[in-house]
Write a structure and sequence with these properties.
Layout lengths: L2 E2 L13 H12 L3 E2 L10 H8 L2 H7 L7 E9 L2 E2 L1 H5 L2 H9 L2 E5 L2 E4 L7 H4 L7 H5 L3 E5 L6 H12 L4
Parallel strand pairs: 1-2, 3-7
Antiparallel strand pairs: 3-4, 3-5, 5-6
């Protein structure tokens, strides 16, 4: 089974980075690995476009439409239990909060109704898109702890429906 990394990375412990998780999973599955050697967020759309055009990153992202199953981590915003919230620029954080963000999945900031908070922000992310993710036939979202239940169940179920 091939493993495709769905998001760029956020600085932190290398052991829990998406690159390391994808590498370990591919080692267990015996299949190919398609890593995204890029940050999850960048400063502007032009930088994101340039990164997406890098042959290695483009190679992984070109596999997104063929993904048949996805395993995702859910970040909660109230109470906060997410890496994403902690690393956003202040202006992005304010837009997310004022836009009604309740969760994040694969770097996509999600409102209670399951739709993205700020499509312009998503243009600066190196990740699977909202529409691509909704087209994945099987999706498993993992939320660690009861605090994430409010974020993961209603908003992510709508965002990922009918594949949840």
């Amino acid at each position: 089974m091939s493993i495709v990394q769905l998001t760029g990375f956020i600085a932190g412990g290398i052991g829990s980075s998406p690159i390391e998780v994808a590498r370990q999973a591919s080692r267990q599955s015996g299949g190919d690995v398609y890593p995204l050697f890029a940050p999850l967020f960048v400063q502007d759309r032009e930088t994101a476009k340039g990164l997406r055009n890098h042959p290695d990153i483009r190679g992984a992202m070109n596999v997104f439409p063929a993904i048949i199953a996805a395993l995702l981590s859910v970040g909660a915003w109230n109470p906060p239990d997410t890496q994403v919230r902690d690393v956003l620029r202040p202006d992005d954080f304010e837009k997310a909060v004022s836009g009604g963000c309740v969760a994040d999945i694969t770097g996509i900031l999600i409102k209670e109704d399951g739709t993205p908070v700020d499509p312009a922000f998503q243009e600066r992310c190196i990740n699977i898109s909202y529409d691509q993710l909704r087209n994945v036939p099987r999706v498993v979202a993992v939320a660690g702890g009861a605090a994430k239940a409010e974020a993961s169940v209603p908003s992510c179920a709508v965002a990922l429906s009918p594949n949840w």
